[in-house]
Give the backbone structure.
Amino acid sequence: MDILLGQVLRFDGDPFAEGRAHIDEAVAVDGGRIVATGTKDALRAAHPGARVTDYGRCLISAGFVDAHVHYPQTAIIASWGKRLIDWLDTYTFPEEMRFGDPAYARDIADRYLDLTLANGTTTVCSYATIHPESVDAFFAAAGARDLRAFAGKTCMDRNAPNRLRDTAQSAYDDSKRLLDAWHGRDRLSYVITPRFSPTSTPEQLAALGALWREHPDCLMQTHLSEQTDEIAWVRDLFPQSRDYLDTYEAQGLLGEGAVFGHAIHLTDRERARLIEAGASVVHCPTSNTFIGSGLFDMGLARAGLRVGLATDTGGGSSFSMLRTMAAAYEVGQLRGDPLHPSQLWWLATQGSARALRAEASIGNIAPGMEADLVVVDLASTPAIEQATPRATDVWGEVFPTIMMGDDRAIRAVWVNGRPR
Ligand code: GUN
Ligand code: ZN
C-alpha cells in the first residue's frame, strides 16, 4: 500500500457538461489500483502501514492518455514545409518502410514509449505500419513497461508505395492474427486500423468492417476530414458516397468504438451521424497547426460527442500532452472559444479515455481505477514559477504549466501502481 500526498485532482464528470474537478490531499494505491482519496490524516489513519510519498504542492493526476499517435513517425517528427499528402509521401511513407525490420521497429517503439512516459503519458492509442512486425514490436515494448496500450496494423491497399501495400484479404488475415495474439493480453488492446479512405479500396474497408463485426469489443481507428484537399480526393475516389464519413459507414466502420482522428471539416450530416452512432473523434491540435489542416470545433464535445485529445506524433510537433493542451487552448482562442484549464486537463485524461471507451479503468482518480498517475511540478521553470503566485485557485496555479510546461514539469510517473 502506498499513499501519495499532493494536490490530487479528480473529476466527477465531463466539464463540457455538468462535471466538476475536485482536489484532495492524498491518494492511496494498492495492487495496481486506486483505493481511496481524501485528507492526509484520514488516509494515514485508515492505512497505518502504508509507505507515504510526499509530493508537496505537485498536482497528482491520472496519467495522460494520448488518443491518436503514430509511434513509427517518432524519428520524423518536426519535418519541414509540407501539407498532408506531400508530408505522407515525402517523410512518412519512406520512414514507415523500415518497420518490416523487427529490430528497428522495437528500437523505435522503446524510444517512443520512453519519450511519452517522460512526458507523463501512461496510455497511447497508436497506429503501427502495414508490417505485422511493427505491431508485435509495439505491444512487446508496451507490455515490458506494464502499460495499458492500444494499437493496430495500419492497412493500405492503394495510393501508397508498393512496399507499403497489403490487400483486402491480407489486411483481414494479418489483423485477425494480431488481434488473436494481443487483444486482452496484459493491459493491451488491439485496434482495427484502416489508415484512411484514400489508401483503402472499398473492398479493404469492407473486409475490416467484417472483422470489426466479429470482434465488436475492439476499437476501430482511422482518419476523417483532416484537410480540404484530402476531402476533395475522397470525393473523387468515392463518387457514390454522400460524404467522407459515408465511405466508412457504408462498409460497417461507424459505430460505438469507432475513433476518428482530426474530424475538422465536417458537414452537418457527418456531425449528426457521429453523435447518433456514439462514435469518438480525436482533436490533434499541434498536428492541425503544424500540417496546416484547420481549427477543430470543440462544440462537438458540448454536443455530446466523445472527444479525445492527442499529439498525433509525428504529424504533431510534440510528445507532450501539456504542449498539446496549450495548442488546444490556442486553437480554441482562434475560434473565439477559450477552453477552461479544467476542460483542457479533462480532455487529456478522462476525455481521451472515454474516446477509447476505457473510462472505467483509466483517465481519472477514483476507487477501483487503475493506478496510472502523473505527478506534475507546478513550478518547474523560473518562467512558470514567477507566474503562479497571483493564482486565486488551483486552475490559476495549473494554467502556466499547461501553457509553458514540458517534460521538466513531470516529477514522477506511476504505472499500474508502481513508480517508474
Ligand atoms: N492521414 C492519413 N495518414 C495520416 C498520418 O500518418 N498522419 C496524419 N496526420 N494524417 C494522416
Ligand atoms: Zn494520424
User: Anything to note?
Assistant: The longest strand covers residues 51-62. Residues 102-118 form the longest helix (17 residues). The CA atoms of residues 325 and 345 lie 7 Å apart. DSSP finds 15 helices and 16 strands in the chain.
